[in-house]
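Researcher: Please predict.
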Amino acid sequence: MARKKTAAKTTKKLVKKAVRKKTAVTKTHRKKTGVSSLSKRTNAATSKHTDKPLPRQPLGHLLVEKILREAGFKGGVSTDKHILDRYSTDESIFSIRPQIVIQPKDQRDVEIAVSVINEKKGTFPSLSLTPRAAGTGLSGGSLTDSIVIDTCAHMRHMGSVRTEHGSTLFTCESGTMWRDVEKALKKEGCYLPPFPASKDICSIGGSVANNAAGPDSLRYGHCADWVHSLEVTLYDGKTYTIKPMTYREFKILTKKNNAYSTIAKEVFALIAKHEKTIQKTRPKTKKNSAGYPLWDVLNVSVASFRRGKGTFDLTRLISGSQGTIGIITSVTMRAQPIAQDTQLIVVPVFDLMDAGKVISKALDFNPINIELFDGLTFDLALQHPEFFKDRLSKLDYYKVLLSLYTTYHVRYARKTPAFTILITIDPKSLSSRTAAGMVKALKNNHGKRARLVKNRHEREMFWQVRRASYSLSKLQDPNKRPAAFLEDMTVPPQHLSKFFAEIKKLLKKYNVTAAVHGHGGNGHLHFYPLLDFGNKTTPALIEKMAEEFFATAVKHDGNICGEHNDGIIRTPHLSKMFNKKTLSLFAQVEHICDPLDIFNPGKKVNPRFDIKGSIRDKN
């Protein structure tokens, strides 16, 4: 009994202390922001953010389940050790243990969770919500030391595919798996062009939140380019349909008194005030998922928009925001008819300096994609034929292997190309030109062995090797793990050869190996150095390598973040791409959309996780 009374007294003291802290935090917040409520805020990013993790507050997290249930939350809520362990990692190099994992059943559950955290943030400042979908991200975007909100557990409903105003559309909840959407679209003869390489294991909501892309992004762009509208729960705990709007629609919205209206007004004012700076900031590379793409929110100038032209589109900010602006509950996207009768041209490049020239010439023909893989990937495929056994039917397996070894021994005379470039073309887009004419043009521009591949099994062989590059790299050393931290750098295609030559020197300098593949048409390379995460020196090595490799990309007019987003690994390095003024604009945008830092703090702006201290210690 005495112990119970002591415990009760201790709890009362903690609660009183928390209430005093809430009052102090609220006063400080109001004083520094110059506001008295959430609906009255300035554009200025304030010290509500921190560049260091807030102290954990176990009492606050313990109270969350009780408060959620009382508010009507129907989904799962867990502090079970094994579940927390599972959510401590994703496909990135990090390991960060959450305090709680919640799995909303539906949109209403998401609204309840946001409202509860919003209400209790003053009492317990360390509370936050980090959205997680399939956990396939490579930047640590879904990791947190507070609350994970997993939308993949239950929110996976997909509506029917439909046609509106000549466009094929579908709507699905954010946790719907890409593979399920792909099956439904295929029945209608359609597909989602920005499909990532991870399409068999990732979700639609996660892909939009990261603004993912893949091979066909050369012609068709990222996920953001295919978003029709989004259902997003904003900081006030209400869900809004967000889509492109005309100036007239914008003016009607801004007369309302809600979070969406406030965000729209303040983001527009920010863009109007800093229009020239924002446009100058646009990355030089076609692919980019770094920062907040303010340059894409308006598709015309501010003056033209005010005259009734163009649209204002906040889905451009939310796509790629990694859940730092709000929580996506539902997605409506456009789809594209599957191209028929595509053809594959393969160009083996034995002199590395020829790669950029071949790709630049291929771009003249408007290909669907230009993919590539390096010599190490090709060698690993030759050394591990059994790897492909489970990926092909028995007959196809032997025919694909025959093509692999015939190509190496006969066509390439046992010499491995520095790069193998795969170019997919749509004969319809060639207009009066032909595939044969394209092959000839490539041969005359450093692609001496360019060839139109007509054999189905040979085509499949090249694509199997390209898709397997990451997985094959794991076979080099079972005691190491391919590390995702350099894998998203992008340079203008014409700089690709010189960039890769420097990358090879750096890999040699640090005595690490990495199989390379990527989207050649975008000058976008993916490579994952093999590292031993059980070695205590690995975190320091990662920091040193990141500094030098990222600087090399920027030196070649490139960026450090093509499609895998900022997360924990790249957020601290955004100053390499953007100046202080632009970073300040990003911080202001995040503050406008998330005034109390409820949503996934430490990502995109205001980095708060120590990289070395957060790196996993197991392979």
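Model: Residues 1-54 have pLDDT under 50 and may be disordered.
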